[in-house]
Amino acid sequence: MTLKALRVLAGLCFVVAITFILERIPVNPTTAGFTYLVTILLVAARWGLVESVTASVAGAFCLNYFFLPPVRTLNIADTHNWIALTAFLATSLVASQLSEVARRHNAQLHQRQAEMERLYALSRGIMLIDSERPAGVQIAAEIVRTYDVTSVTIYDQTDDRSWPAGITPGTATANSRTAPITLAGRRIGSVAIEGNAMLSDSALHAIANLIAVGLEKARTQELASLAEAARQSEQFKSTLLDAVAHEFKTPLTSIKAAASTILTSKALSEEQQHELLTIIDQESERLSALVNEAIHLARVESGRLHLARTACNIGDLIDDALKQSSALIGERPVETRIASSLPKAHVDSELFIVMMKQLLDNATKYSPPGSPIRISADASQDSIRISIHNQGLGLTESERSMVFERFYRTPGARKNAPGTGMGLAIVQDIVRAHGGRIEVESELGVGTEFSVRLPLAKGERH
Length: 462
Hints:
Helices cover about 60% and strands about 15% of the residues. By secondary structure, it is of the alpha+beta class. The strands form three sheets. Strands 6-8-9-11-10 form a five-stranded mixed β-sheet, with helices on one face. Helix 3 (about 50-65) packs antiparallel against helix 4. The radius of gyration is 43 Å and the shape is rod-shaped. It starts with a helix and ends in a 7-residue tail after the last strand. The model has no long low-confidence stretch (mean pLDDT about 80).
């Protein structure tokens, strides 16, 4: 038995119950008629027109049979009672119709309110989509979640791509609803929603409009990001060229002066020539280091920093970095404390050595001559920690927060030590590319320590 048939039967049961009660209480036909009318109105308000009309006919029958004389018959002796019965039936039918209209209107209001709430939730979700992921698939998933539908497929005509979401995306059935996606009168795609046959046309078009706004917002953000990236790239190139050109001046001047002296002076002793050639060699090394810094930073900035990871012995890599930095470190004492049985790390050996050389260069530049540099390496459950400590002047809190910024140099360093401010930025990018992190601890007048944490190779983790 269907739900509507059960409601009709329930309405009839109410009329029978009212009749049973009224028969036990001595009431006149007028009171009985009003009681039936109230019952019919309640049925109409609760269930609908078919149920109330059935109850009206049953109520008219019971009123005639049980309360209008002669009772227990369908005959009506008095003409006035015919008029009363006809008026009762007409009133109950009209009241049922009006109640049905009011009930439908109320249901429509609730439906519109629910649609507005869902549209608000959808618009909020679209405005908060992640700019790092495709907008179409996020919007489709948001529609599935908000409207509890089976699937949604968004076709983006501009990019000629479809974005599905849901359990069975792209399957068309009788419950499928489609709508064009337009923006400023121009069609930019379409949307297909499966699994919600009750979705109104106005709600469907509103959803399509929100999709259009979301896709356009994503495109605008993407274009803005590309423009900002281009602007920053141009700014980076300009700043890099300025910094490198400025740093190149000193070694080039020294090389030029030494070479000119050798070429033009005829009375130079062998010792003097050796001293000038040493200057040329040292300044050439400095120029080479500057060029390498610029190349590595440019690789990082352009996204061409591809890692060739292998399981490496960190102690061996630290030794290689120290050997390659021997000319820079000179006679300065270096203390190394490498934990015994240190596990291997999953790193790019070449970039690791570049990182260590930059940290050693930084420790050498910003600590007093002859002061020791301490290098330590130990392991935790899933990472290796490498620390480089120097006995320099230390950094203030504001300097520590900016020390990894490109081209940043502390006020004192600008006067006392050569450099471009690129070294620590390169270190940070290399560490991040490995999935690690770098930290700095410093105390004024005591020194500074940079700590790098890199993940262990999978087979080396505890």
